[in-house]
Structure formats: structure tokens, C-alpha cells
Amino acid sequence: MSFAHSVGFVSAIEADNKRPIAITNKPLRIAIIAHCLYPIAQPYAGGLEMITQLICDELVAQGHQVLLYAHKDSRTQATLMPMLTRDEFDATVYENEHDTLGMSREEMYQYLVYQRVLRDIIEREAFGEIDIVHNHSLHHVPMMTGQAFSARFFTTFHTPIFPQLRLGLLTLRHGTSTQFTAISKHQQQLFSEFVPSHVVYNGIDVESFVADTEPTDSLIREHGELYFWYGRICPEKGTHLAMQYCMDAGKKLIIAGPKSNEDYFNEQVAPLLSQDRANGENKLFDYIGHVTKDEVNYYLCRATAMLFTSTWDEPYGLTLAESLACGTPVIGFDVGASAEIVTPSTGIIVAKEDKEAFIKAFGAIKHISRQACRERALQFCSVSAMVEGYLALYKAAVRESQQKKGFANSRNEQLAQGSFIHNKSDSSTGSNLKLNHTSNDRSITMNFEEH
After folding, report:
1. Spatial CA neighbour of 32 closest among 196, 146, 184, 140
2. Dihedral of the CA atoms 285, 288, 294, 298 (nearest 10)?
3. Of 58, 159, 392, 396, which is the most buried if we count CB atoms within 10 A?
């Protein structure tokens, strides 16, 4: 049984052929396609899962009707449409069937997952149940099949150009009527080689973070001068760089995050921790492991600044937004979208791996207003700002679709009237004009019969 018959999402709309229903100020029916590998639920596998959940829940809170196509263990305020599970997949295909198709089993699984999702969405569209489709899947199948929805189909670029994305983009670069969004201007530029996109920045639940907006001098008197680094501990996050800079400057640093690359931790981070322990009571570093969101909030509120040492071009940078939400300024590298999020009034951005500039920033960062950081987060990094951006695009797409339908209906009415007029005999000329409609090619020809 298909999804279309398993869940009664909304009843079909009976359209008025002459005057399309104006629904841009009414609740929208939105289908959101998530990535299939991880549940959209806490603890999040990554930022993509968090953003997808926030978008869905905020849209529902604003009164819109949302279908979320996602992993069966997802948690959402939307109507969850569970994707094909691996057990269902294994029961559907032969053990070595992927080999006959020249695919890995994982590639075949994802291909069938998204084909099934799009089939259901298209069936619902036929009954008038879908206004907008928003694709966050990172897979080429929705991007290609979404052409059926024209400008009412959106794909958001959250990541670098992974192979599955590139596969779709190589075709879509030659023309597509669907729309794309990027989560930063840097991301927009990255994908501009293939397709144009709108920028809608990611958002976080700013209100869920407690902020300490007291002057930094007061904070230092109470807790001491203390810096905080958090994230996945791996080469591209540059954990060891933050440690080296603090060691050279004599600054205390709390380090938090999972060891996502054991070799990197053992070769680059562990030796610095060991060297620091030799200082006894004067040691600078404290590695506290993987921490919860509340713990991150606690340490950020006591930190003089958050250190951002990513060495790759991050499409957005959620740690930057979270730090600002806590009222904590940032010292970071100018990579990816960091300079779009952190302004001169909320932090200091230096050239990547510019050790001298980074260490110099330890002194200047104390003059940044923590209140300005919190205000920046509320205005620029909030879920409501993100969803407002998406809704503006959704409504414009629906309005354009209605206008096109209105034009098409008006044109059909004119043709029908023309057919009626032309089939009437004109006694003054003695001629009879007829419109013949050819059913196989839907073309219209005019025959002139002289009497």
C-alpha cells in the first residue's frame, strides 16, 4: 500500500477553473524530505538533522500542515512518513541484486528509498494535497524527480558537493524550473557553477540558550579568563591549533567534543594534553569529552570567547550561532561562512592559521559586547528568521503557480469561446469555419470550407 492511501494528510481541494484559490495567506501543505540515514531526533547525528527538525516544528507551530519523510525513529511535530527501512529493503530485493545493477547495496537502498518517497508525493500532488516540496536529502533522485513540481520544489544545499549531489547537478545545470537555496553566501557561490540559488541562513533555537550578557571584565573577575573550544575532534576542525595558540599565549582552554578521528586525537591532541599535564596546578587544558547541549551552554556562558579553528570551508557553522546565542564572542578563522555570521561587533575573524593575529585577538576580544552577541543571534541566527525566509520563497512559488494556472484556464476559456464562434455559419460570406481538435497530439487546426 502506498503512503498516499496509508495516511489521510489533507482532503483534496476542488479547484475553481476560472479563479484559482488564493492560498498564500492560508496554511500551506508542505512535504519535507529528510536525509534517510539518521533519525530526525535528539541526540542529533549532525547539524542537518537538527535543522530539519527545527524547520518542521516551527512550520507546524505557525499552523502549516507538514509531512516529514524521514527515518522511522524520527521525532517531529509534523506528520511522520517513515521511509523504507533496511529490513523492508532486504525483504524486497535479492541478496546480490545490487551487483547486477552495478551499484553498491547502500547505493541501491538509498535509490529505492527516495524513489518511493517521490512516488508518494507525486500521488498526493495528483489529489491536490501538496503545495510545496522541500528537499533536504543530499541525493540526486529527489532533485531529478522533483521537476514534476516546477518552481514549487526546493532543494537546500547543506554540504559540499558530494557525489550524489553532483550527479544531479550535472544534468540540472542544463536547465531546471525547480528552485534551490543555500545556507550561506559562501555556499551559494560554491554551487553557482551549476544552478542559481537563494540564500536562507540556518537557524537555531536561540531562546533555548541561556545567555550571560554581563561585561566581559565582570565575567573574568568571577570565573577567570577562560576560553572554550567544542566540536568533533578531527583534522578539519583544527583542535590542536586552538591548543597551540592558547599554550603560546598562556590562556586556559576547555576542550569538548567526541573523538571522531582517533588517529588525529592520538597524534595531535593527546601529546599536547600530556605536555600540559606536566605543569601540574598551572596546567592550561581541560578535556571534558562529549558534552550535552546544556553543558555547552554552561561553559559558553563562562568563557571569555569561543575559539573557532576549522581549517575547511564550513557551509555555515552552527557552533558560531550557538556561541552568539549564549552572549559569547568568537575568535575564529576566515573560512566558509564564518565572516557572514560573526560580525566585527560580535567577534574577531582572522586569516586561516594566522597564529600571530589569533593570539593578538585574545586581548581585543575583551572589548566585544556580549549583549551585541546575543542580539545578533536573535536577529540573524534564530529559527523564526530561517523559517520566515523559507516561507517567503514558498508563498512566492505558490503565487506564481496560481498565476500560471489562471492564465492557462483563461486561455482555455478563450479557445473554447473561439471554437463556439468559429463553428457558427457566417451567412454574409457563405463560409463555415471549423476547429478540429486532434486527440493524439492535442494540436488545433482550422479548416476553411467554401460553399
Report:
1. 146
2. -20
3. 58
Q: What are the pLDDT digits (tens) for 306-356? A: 999 999 999 999 999 999 999 999 999 999 999 999 999 999 999 999 999
138 vs 78, 106, 161, 180, CA distance in Å?
A: 21, 14, 9, 12
Cβ neighbourhood burial of 302 (10 Å; 0-12, 13-18, 19+): middle
Which grid coordinates belong to 168?
544531479
Is 184:315 a contact under the CB 8 Å cutoff? yes
As to burial, measured by CB atoms within 10 angstroms (0-12 exposed, 13-18 middle, 19+ buried), residue 83 is buried
The Cα 367–Cα 285 span in angstroms is: 24
Measured on CA atoms in the order 23, 28, 31, 34, is the torsion positive or negative?
positive
Q: What is the pTM of this model?
A: 0.81
What are 185-194's pLDDT values in tens digits?
999 999 999 9
Closest CA to 79 of 88, 92, 70, 66: 66
Maximum distance among all Cα pairs of the chain, rounded to whole angstroms: 113
Q: Please write the tens of the pLDDT for every residue from 48-63.
A: 999 999 999 999 999 9
Please give the span between the terminal C-alpha atoms of the chain, in angstroms, as a whole number: 60
Compute CA 400 distance to the chain's CA centroid, rounded to the nearest angstrom: 23
Q: Cα dihedral sign for 147, 389, 202, 33?
A: negative
Closest CA to 121 of 136, 110, 131: 131
Single-letter amino acid code for the residue at 399:
R
Pairing of strands 347-350, 330-333: parallel
